[in-house]
Amino acid sequence: MFGKNPVRTQEAGDGQRLWIQEVFYTLQGEGPFSGQPAVFIRTAGCNLRCFWCDTDFESSEWRPDLSEITATVESLRPAHCDLIVITGGEPMRQNIVPLIRILLSKGYRVQIETNGTLWLDLPEHENLSIICSPKTPTISSDLVERIDAFKYVVLHTNMDSEDGLPSGSTQLADRPSRLFRPPDGATIYVSPCDERGQLEANIKAATESALKHGYRLSLQTHKIIGLP
Ligand code: SF4
Question: Considering the entire predicted model, what is its pTM?
């Protein structure tokens, strides 16, 4: 979207019908489940507008009900795949709680990828994990303690020399901003931004940050191997 998407607020729906960009089968490319086969549910719309974001989450007109979403997941999911990733856009912008409950009841592991700014009363479940990639100075205080791992998108031009995490705004290029910092002891991934022409320098910066501060380097494996 490259900073062109409309900023959309959180919707107060009953979650029985969602605006979905796409559902697809791939390998999870980032974070704790990197390398594992997964069905991705990409919800549409986002409440932020990151200037480097290259994901299409606005072009869909598909608004399936939950039975259609789960049927689509089942049609794409090989028997060996029990990981369902709900991503966006910003998935917490819509009421995804009923969808999560259905997926958990079927025995799947469910991973939510969120920017952390929005709160939903998510179920407590051992098979539900939350990965937060902060894009703002603050995130939902209710969500913080539920987050299993943090992931930071690294641009070599915006690195805090103290902690090796981003020091620049995600919403406006070339503006300083201290993005939310995780609590002590949190699991932290650093992921180089796939910015046009800057990937090599960003990989170098993320690698140095991981080595110096003990973070985990997370490359976008799915892109390297040419999967969506
Ligand atoms: S929060 Fe994520 S999906 Fe939304 S604009 Fe930023 S990078 Fe893109």
Answer: 0.94
